[in-house]
Structure formats: C-alpha cells, structure tokens
Amino acid sequence: MKLFRWGLRNQPPELFEDRVTSSQPNLEFTVAFRVEWRVPRATPSSRIPVGQAGRTVRGLVEQVAERHSVLRPAAAEQEINHLLKHDLPLRTPELEVSWAYVDVTVDEDTRLYAEQVAQAGRELELDALARRQTQARMQFMREEVLHSPASARIFLMLENSSRLGMLPPGTDVDGVIREIQQWAPQSRWVVIAQLLHAFVNRLSDADADDLLGTLRSLFTDYGAPDLAEQVPTPTASPNQGPGSPERDGQHR
C-alpha cells in the first residue's frame, strides 16, 4: 500500500439507507448507514472509489444482522456498532474506512408480521406439548389405570380427592388392598386366567365350544346361573355340535 505513505485525505461521508436480512426468512431490518472514509492523497479524483466504503461496511453489518430477529432491532444495532468500533479503521488497497455507525429500525408492517409468526410458532409449540401430555396420559391409563379394576378405582378416588394421595372418607381400604392383591400379575387367579387363555387359544373351534358348554354347566351346578347366562354361545354351526357325525368323526 505505497499510496498510503503520502497521507490520506477525508472524503464526504456516505449516508444511505438499505434493507438488511434478519435471522427470519423474508423479514428485513431497515438500516441507516453513516460511513466516514479517506483515500490516499495521491489518488486522482477520477479514481476515487465512491460507494466502496459503504459496501464494505454493509458486508460487516450483514454478518451480524442475520443472527438477530426483527423483533429485537435494538439488540442488532448494539452488536453491529460494537463490531464496527472494534474492527475499524479498516484499510483496503484503495481506501480506509475510518469510522461508521448504523441506526437499525423495523417498519410497522414487518414488525406486525413477525409478531404473528412468533405467535403462530408459540401456538404450535403449545399444541405439540398438549399432544405429548395427552399421549403420556393415555399411555398411563393403559398401563396403570386400566391394568385392573382395583387400579381404576384407586385412580378415580385420587382424582376426586381434594389432595393427591388422600383417599376419600369412608373408603374400604382393606377391600381395595385385597382387590389389588387379587389382580397382581403373579396372583393365583390371574395366573390361572392366563393359563386358560393360552389353553383355549390352542383348541379348535369345536373343542372350544365343548369347553364353553362344560363351563356353563359348572356355573349352574355351583349355583351361579347368572354367570352361566353370560358364557358366550358356541361359534360352531348346529350340525357341527357334539354328537353330530362330523363332530364324532373328528374324534375317531
């Protein structure tokens, strides 16, 4: 930079306004620039690079502005001017940018649109949170509350209680505990029910119908006709019932 050995002469400040991209797509700041600059004394008037100082500063401003939201123009302005103060003076082969300052603003339409976008984003986050909470509650209902009648009863009692963990007055605590024990995964009747379920799944339809008839008779013999009436009806057709030729043929 031999030209700089002969000293510099000041040039008229560059004052201009421009739109600069923010961190949000299609939303821009309005930036007013004031750029002071000098050129070597030996530079002919015809070769003075008018506009280059402003473009140089604008490049620095863009690097900072694109990290900020248009809803925070003051923060963007503060960081930009701090950067300019730190990096200037800045020399290129043709000139020296000695000082620069910017005013950052946002027009009303841009600000309103940015607020609407932000509000929509918050609503989407709230909707997503509500969905996660609902999914977690449904999973809890499936795995815990609906695991057994006793669990469901306890859940309802706790939900209706004024304080979480306090059972309502008059609750038969011993009865609830007994019911919980009956429905525990390793309790005797739960294990038997699981074994019966596995056994029935291995039977043919005809054999399963025989078992239903036996169960209906067992309920009746032990004085529980109401339970006998609830036993499902056979799925096999009448000509496939016990004693039919087709049925007898299967056991030969």
Please, could you describe this protein's structure?
The protein has about 250 residues and is of the alpha+beta class. The protein is built from nine helices and five strands; from the N terminus they run βββααββααααααα. Strands 1, 2, 3, 4 and 5 form a five-stranded antiparallel sheet that branches. The longest helix has about 35 residues, at about 110-145.
Number of strands: 5
N to C succession of SSEs? EEEHHEEHHHHHHH
Radius of gyration: 42 Å
Given as residue ranges, the uncertain stretches (5+ residues, pLDDT < 50) are: 240-252
**Average pLDDT across residues?**
81
Q: What amount of the residues lies in strands?
A: 5-15%
Which features would summarize this protein structure in a list?
alpha+beta, 5-stranded antiparallel beta sheet, 51% helix, 9 helices, 252 residues
What is this entry, summarized?
By secondary structure, this protein is α+β, with helices and mostly antiparallel strands. The protein contains nine helices and five strands; from the N terminus they run βββααββααααααα.
Layout of helices and strands:
Elements: E1 8-10, E2 14-21, E3 28-40, H1 52-65, H2 73-87, E4 90-91, E5 96-105, H3 108-143, H4 149-159, H5 173-182, H6 188-201, H7 205-221, H8 225-230, H9 245-250
Antiparallel strand pairs: 1-3, 2-3, 3-5, 4-5
Helix pairs in contact: 1-2, 4-5
